[in-house]
Design brief:
A hairpin with a 2-residue loop joins β1 and β2. By secondary structure, this protein is mainly alpha-helical. The chain contains eight helices and two strands, in the order αααααββααα. The C terminus is likely disordered. It is globular. α1 packs parallel to α7, α2 packs across α6 and α5 runs antiparallel to α6. It has a two-stranded antiparallel ribbon.
Length: 142
């Protein structure tokens, strides 16, 4: 990637960070639980939650994934490096739109450059109002 492209990408990440930082904290109050500061876990959660029994199936597997691979919690590149086979082994081989969810979970970060992965990780780890999720049981699980 050329220097100009990297600079433009960096400016874009900074613009998103600044825009999100201006969102009123009250906008985040409608959600519960989630994976604050854990972009990798949030991504896997979002994909594997599609048409799934969350408390019985997804959440226990997410806990196992986090226990066995804590490096993916806040690092999208670590999720890419982990590989779809290992994600599938822990999370199961369920599909959405005829594609394995493990492949779907890795696709967004695989499409990003390493620099953008670092920028997104930095963004997620910013001190911001607690962004939460619609899953009540996760908050008590940690």
């Amino acid at each position: 990637m050329e220097k100009k492209e990297l600079e433009a990408q960096s400016r874009s990440v900074d613009a998103v960070i600044q825009a999100v930082a201006r969102i009123d904290a009250a906008e985040f109050a409608a959600y519960r639980g989630g994976w604050p500061g854990q972009v990798g876990m949030a991504l896997v959660d979002a994909v594997f939650s599609i048409r799934a029994r969350y408390d019985a199936s997804v959440l226990p597997r997410l806990r196992t994934l986090k226990e066995h691979h804590p490096e993916i919690s806040d690092d999208l590149q670590a999720l890419v490096d982990l590989g779809a086979d290992e994600v599938r082994r822990v999370m199961g081989s369920t599909k959405t739109a005829r594609r394995h969810k493990a492949d779907c979970a890795r696709q967004p970060p695989c499409s990003l450059s390493r620099r953008l992965c670092v920028g997104l990780t930095r963004f997620v780890n910013m001190k911001m109002p607690r962004v939460t999720h619609t899953r009540v049981s996760e908050a008590s699980a940690r």
